[in-house]
Amino acid sequence: MYNVGNLTENEKIVMLEYSEKLFDILYENGDYGFAEQHVANIFMKLAVCYCKLGVKEKALAYIEKAPEHIIKFNALNNINVPLHTSLLVNRIRMGKIGPRDGLSDYIDEFENRSEYEIIRSDTKFAVALKKLKENKK
To answer: What is the pTM of this model?
Structure first.
């Protein structure tokens, strides 16, 4: 849904924001479950697009949203498997999954992705990265 290939940055933004809206429709109660990771990835890709265009405030707005979804996805395990309550997905039952350390990959991306260089010194970026580090097991 969010593999945008060789589109221009503006075209990628249109497709990614459309994907974000689709997730909001499917999970109107915010009960994303396993889709938390996909929502986070959409936000991270949008932040990259806006960084490439030099639109720092929009990039930071998406960077601020990503940690919440990353942390929720990372918390899913065999004990914590919530049921969906949103109308379009409430019959879907998530399977059992084991514990994971998915935060390390996202922390690495925050710290090392070159596109983030234009926003890395901003306080909002630092706060988002701190949230991920504080929740790392």
So the answer is: 0.86
